[in-house]
Amino acid sequence: MPAELRALVRAFNQMLARLEDSFRRLSEFSSDLAHELRTPIQNLLMQTQVTLSREHEPAEYRATFQSNLEELERLSRIASDMLFLARADNRLVAPKRESVELHKEVERLLGFYEAYASERGVRLTHSGAATIAGDRLMLQRALSNLLSNAIRFTPAGREIAVGIAQRAGSAEISVTNPGPEIAPAQLSRIFDRLYRADPSRREGDSEHAGLGLAIAKSIVEMHGGTIRAESSAGVTRFQLTLPLRGLHPDVAG
Ligand SMILES: Nc1ncnc2c1ncn2[C@@H]1O[C@H](COP(=O)(O)OP(=O)(O)OP(=O)(O)O)[C@@H](O)[C@H]1O
Ligand SMILES: [Mg+2]
C-alpha cells in the first residue's frame, strides 16, 4: 500500500472499530432495557388478571392497587431517567450557570440523607468548600446518586466522607465509603446505563435499575467535568472534577 495512504487507512479502520463498538453497545442496551421493563410489566399483568378473575373484598382491591402503584412508580422512574439521559445525549438539556456553593449543597444533601443513614447505622461527614458556576439542581442530583449508593453499601457502624476542594481551575468532590469492593473489570462499566456490579441482582431488581451513576456521569460531563471511581482495600471512592467555569461548549451557548 502506498505510504501516503497508510495513515488514512489506519484512521478509517479506527473509525470503523469505534462505530462497531457504538452499535454493539446500543444493541446491548436495548436488550437490557427490554429485560428491565419485562419483569415489572409481567408482575402488573399477572396481578391484574388474577384480581379480575373473581369478585374481591374492597380491602383486597386496595392491596392490589397499592402493590401495582409501587411497580408503576418504579417504571415511571426508569422512563424519566432514560428520558433525561436521552435528552442529555442529544444536548437538549442545558445546565444553568448559577453560582453553586458545593459545600452548602453537600450539607443540604447530608441533612436530607441523615435519617436514612442513621437508620442504617452509618455516619456522614464532610469537609472543605468550593464554589463553581453550574446547575444547582443537576449537581444535587449527581451527588445524591453517589450518596445513596454509598449509604447502601457502607456497613453499619462505619462512616462516609465527602471531601470538597477548590483547586486553581476546578473544584473536586470525593465521596468515600468503606464496603464491598468493585472488581477492577467492573469499574469501567458501572457508569454504563442499567449496569449493576452485583450479578445476583442484574436484572429485574425491584429497587435499583442501575441508572444512578450513568446520570451522575452525564451531568458531570455536561458541566465539562470528569467522574471516576476507584475501589481497593475495602474502600470505594468516587471523585468528581468540575471546572470552575465552563459548561460543555455545545450547551453553554
Ligand atoms: N459505593 C459503592 N460501593 C460499592 N459498589 C457500588 C458503589 N456505588 C455503586 N456501586 C456499584 O455500581 C452499580 C451501579 O450503580 P448505579 O448507581 O448506577 O446503579 P444502582 O444503584 O444499582 O441503581 P439506581 O442508582 O438506578 O437505583 C451498583 O449496582 C453497584 O454494584
Ligand atoms: Mg444508584
Question: What report would you give on this structure?
Answer:
The protein has 253 residues and is α+β, with helices and mostly antiparallel strands. It folds into two domains: 3-89, Helix Hairpins; 98-252, 2-Layer Sandwich (Heat Shock Protein 90), CATH 3.30.565. It has seven helices and seven strands. It has helices spanning 3-52, 58-89, 102-119, 136-153, 184-187, 212-222, 249-252; strands at 98-101, 123-127, 131-134, 159-166, 170-178, 226-232, 235-243. Strands 2-4-5-7-6 form a five-stranded mixed sheet. A hairpin with a 3-residue loop joins strand 4 and strand 5 (170-178). The structure holds adenosine-5'-triphosphate (ATP) and magnesium ion (MG). Residues 145, 149-150, 153, 177, 179-180, 182, 190, 195-198, 208-214, 236 line the site of adenosine-5'-triphosphate.
User: In percent terms, what proportion of residues is strand?
Assistant: 15-25%
Major sheet: size, sense and barrel closure? 5 strands, mixed
- Unreliable spans: none
**Strand elements, count:** 7
Fraction in helix: 40-55%
If classified by CATH, what would the architecture of the largest domain be?
2-Layer Sandwich
Measured on Cα atoms, how large is the radius of gyration?
22 Å
Distance between the termini: 45 Å
Structure annotation, total helices: 7
How many domains? The number is 2
Q: If you consult CATH, what is the topology of the largest domain?
A: Heat Shock Protein 90
Instruction: Using the coordinates above, name the CATH class of the largest domain.
Output: Alpha Beta
Strand order of the largest sheet: 2-4-5-7-6
CATH superfamily of the largest domain: Histidine kinase-like ATPase, C-terminal domain
Structural shape: globular
Listed once per kind, the bound small molecules are:
adenosine-5'-triphosphate, magnesium ion
Task: List the helices and strands in order.
Answer: HHEHEEHEEHHEEH
pLDDT averaged over residues: 91
In terms of structural class, how would the helical and strand content be classed? alpha+beta
